[in-house]
Amino acid sequence: TVTSNPTRTSPVKRGKWILENILGTPPPPPPDDVPAIDPDVRGAKSIRDLLGKHRESPNCAGCHQKIDPLGFALESFDPVGGYRSRYDKNKDIDTSGELPSGEKFADVSGLKKILVSRQDRFTRMLTDRLLTYASGRRITTLDEPTVDKIVTELPKHQYGLRSLIEAVVTSDLFQNR
Description:
This protein is an all-alpha fold. Helices cover about 50% and strands about 0% of the residues. It contains 8 helices and 2 strands. The chain has helices at about 10-20, 45-55, 60-75, 110-115, 120-135, 145-155, 160-170, 170-175, and strands at about 95-100, 105. β1 and β2 (about 105) form a beta hairpin. α5 (about 120-135) packs across α7 (about 160-170). The chain starts with 10 loop residues before the first helix and ends with a helix.
């Protein structure tokens, strides 16, 4: 984990959020014996360098290989969502990354293209979240057939949000909550 500073953003937190809420593949919690990433005391010149040093630990490398590139893509957005091209000390922001699959991107637009190519994962996650909200409870393994049915039918409707919402509210899961 990264020590938080309220005026800065955290690529780790942002990457973890994408994994959990967009892709539905949350990373495991960090091991108990891994300390937080402290401000630079090891010669790193940027958050990217600092996280690179952190990834040198075998205990950290696996998860951060998945988390960090996603978070770096969003670093051009400040803590309240405004666009920025530099950090406070006029350091340019590097939003490029490479996913564990080998896919590379230069910025958030490139990452978006990659994520759109994984529309099935996004559709499943959005369906899960809408059903969770609509039913007032978490979706369980027993609910997966409902999720599967909605996700399978959605391409016939060009993945329309209106069609997804209609499928959610007409599902047995919602009707019999």
